[in-house]
Specification:
Number of helices: 16
Radius of gyration: 22 Å
Helix content: 25-40%
Number of strands: 12
Structural class: alpha+beta
Strand content: 5-15%
Mean pLDDT: 90
Low-confidence stretches: 1-16, 18-23, 25-37
Order of helices and strands: HHEHEHEHEHEEEEHHHEHEEEHHHHHH
Strand order of the largest sheet: 3-4-1-9
Distance between the termini: 40 Å
């Protein structure tokens, strides 16, 4: 993983350009931004690490049972509307963009899934670095770019972020891409180009920045304005849809304080990054009413690079119809213990088939990182469920697996949070999931660059009212009627 510690290399041309701009009064920090050191990971509940009973059995047989449990997490009725939530599908992929903005784990020795799988030693877990800045600052859009073996600056045209055009009609903006196959995007985090939905959501943020520049803002002003509206949406729109509103209020008011690291040592909690915030994986549909041309599109068709291997840019006919992702045409699936069948078999960025599906990979990552069990966290927070209530949220096959594996009272944290959400019957996260997600996001928002929570009474300036939501930002960007 490329490390950004001492700042970017400065070429003679860049230096000459900077001297010219400096004479015009442009600040040095705008030309040579300070690139932050990598932050690190830590445990939100470190005290739970003291008792082995708070974690899964570290024996290799546990990994085999986790794989078995992951393989059971397949939605048998992926088109049944009864299992749709009331959350528009746009928020599924907004959650993915938030995740890419906050966390990207780098281990010195990536795990090998071919042999026996056991938890990593604590010293290695503590040495894992977070290649993204910890705040809600859109560094996945603005950079620095952190791709392995691909050092580059985010392309700009004056104060604007550079965009290019689709390969065919309709001719519309697209991400700037490398001309060589597989045509990677020149963006701050290429994980935002994993599928067409998050790719074009990323593009919408770029277009919103450029519109601010059209309205007279320079680069720094546009970035600050967009960051702050993004933070508003995350706190007031996204959390309101996915988390328990009372718990969100308690966190915001300081009545529930799980996460409050010092400003000089803000870390990314593993319980959030490796478990709680992965709840969005269960919201993914197996197919989408994508646009007028592709009204019945399977999930695998929307993954990149896919057909992009044949093009420098994808054809205009694949531009998303965002209206269908906000008006209820595409609803996120309920947060529960069942994932889209399309996620059962995954491929890596090189197109090689991964040994397990997404659910098994999520469970194994939690095991590798020594996460506490769901029961241990719930007891610690005083948010325990009634005996047997969690099992009622599982399929009969899952009940059998967790019982045989001993997971019925030592449940993997990610699986626990999904089952808890289903048991809550609210369409949102349950108490434990809400407490972790809301606590971490709101704290990181407070500690973010240009944080709106440092300004009393900050309200959005874009849109037509103070109720500024994700759809308003997409509309401001010019890609939603």
């Amino acid at each position: 993983m490329t490390r950004f510690i001492d700042g970017p290399n400065i070429t003679p041309n860049k230096l000459a350009e900077a001297i010219t701009e400096l004479r015009r009064g442009k600040p040095l920090t705008a030309m040579f931004p300070i690139i932050p050191k990598e932050s690190h990971y830590g445990f939100l509940f470190p005290d739970l690490q003291q008792n082995p009973g708070n974690r899964l059995d570290p024996a290799p047989r546990t990994a085999k049972q986790l794989i078995r449990l992951g393989e059971s997490m397949v939605d048998p009725n992926p088109t049944d509307e009864k299992f749709d939530s009331n959350i528009p599908s746009a928020y599924t992929y907004f959650g993915q963009l938030i995740d890419h903005d906050l966390t990207r784990q780098s281990l010195a020795h990536p795990p090998n899934f071919c042999g026996p799988i056991t938890p990593l030693p604590l010293y290695e877990i503590s040495a894992a670095t977070n290649s993204r800045s910890f705040g809600l600052d859109l560094d996945c859009v603005y950079g620095p770019a952190i791709e392995p073996n691909a050092a580059f600056e985010i392309p700009r045209v004056g104060e604007k972020l550079k965009t290019e055009l689709t390969a065919g009609a309709p001719i519309l903006p697209e991400l700037p891409r490398d001309r060589d196959s597989p045509h990677p995007a020149w963006i701050g985090d290429r994980r935002d180009d994993e599928n067409l939905m998050v790719s074009q959501l990323h593009l919408a943020f770029m277009l919103a920045h450029n519109k601010l520049c059209d309205q007279g803002a320079d680069f720094e002003e546009a970035r600050r304005t967009l960051r702050q509206h993004y933070q508003w949406i995350v706190i007031n729109d996204y959390l309101a849809k996915v988390a328990d509103p009372q718990i969100v209020k308690d966190v915001f008011d300081g009545k529930l304080k799980l996460f409050d690291p010092p400003d000089e040592d803000v870390f990314m909690p593993l319980e959030f990054a490796v478990a709680a915030f992965r709840f969005g994986h269960s919201m993914i549909r197996d197919g989408y009413n994508y646009n007028q041309i592709f009204a019945k599109t399977q999930l695998f068709q929307l993954f990149l690079p896919g057909f992009l291997l044949r093009y420098h840019h994808f054809p205009g006919e694949w531009i998303i119809d965002w209206k269908r992702f906000f008006d209820g045409t595409n609803k996120a699936r309920l947060i529960d213990t069942k994932l889209s069948p399309g996620l059962l078999r995954m491929t890596d960025p090189q197109g090689n088939r991964m040994p397990f599906g997404l659910a098994a990979m999520d469970l194994l990552k939690g095991f590798l990182m020594n996460l506490p069990t769901g029961e241990a966290v719930a007891k610690h927070l005083g948010m325990e469920m009634k005996p047997g209530e969690l099992l009622k949220a599982m399929t009969p096959e899952q009940v059998q697996i967790v019982t045989e594996a001993g997971f019925d009272n030592r449940t993997p944290l990610w699986f626990y949070i999904l089952a808890e959400a289903d048991a809550s019957k609210t369409g949102r996260l349950g108490k434990v999931g809400s407490a972790i997600v809301a606590s971490v996001i709101i704290t990181l928002a407070r500690k973010s660059k240009d944080s709106i929570l440092r300004y009393k009474g900050w309200t959005p300036k874009l849109g037509t009212s103070n109720k500024f939501e994700l759809s308003d930002l997409i509309r401001f960007a010019g890609v939603l009627p």
